[in-house]
Amino acid sequence: MRLDTTMHQRMDQRMILAPRMIQSMEILQLPIMALQERIQQELQENPVLELKETTPEEQAAQAEEDGEPLPEQEKEPEREEELVIDEKDDSLDFDRLEALNKDWEDQFNEEHRPSRGALDEESDKKHDAMQNMASRPQSLQEYLNEQLTFVDAPAEQMELIRYIISHIDERGYVVTPLVDISQSYNPPVTETQVEEALTVIQKLEPLGVGARNLRECLLLQVTPDTPQREVVRVLIGNHLEDIEHNRLPVIQRRTGFDIQVIKSAIDDVIKHLNPRPGSQYTAENIPYVVPDIVVERTEDGDYTVRLLDDWVPNIYISRRYMDAYKDKSSDAKTKEYLKRKIQAAQWLLESIEQRRNTLEKVTRAIIAHQRAFLDKGPDNIEPLKMQQIADQVGVHVTTVSRAVDDKWVQTPRGIFPLKRFFGGGTQTTTGEEVAWETIKQKLLEIIDREDKSNPLSDEDLVRKLNEAGYPVARRTVTKYRKTLNIPQSRQRKDWTLGDMK
Question: Which DSSP string do the residues of 29-81 spell out, in sequence order?
Answer without folding.
Answer: H--HHHHHHHHHHHHHH-TTEEE--S-HHHHHHHHHHHTPPPPPPPPPPPPPP
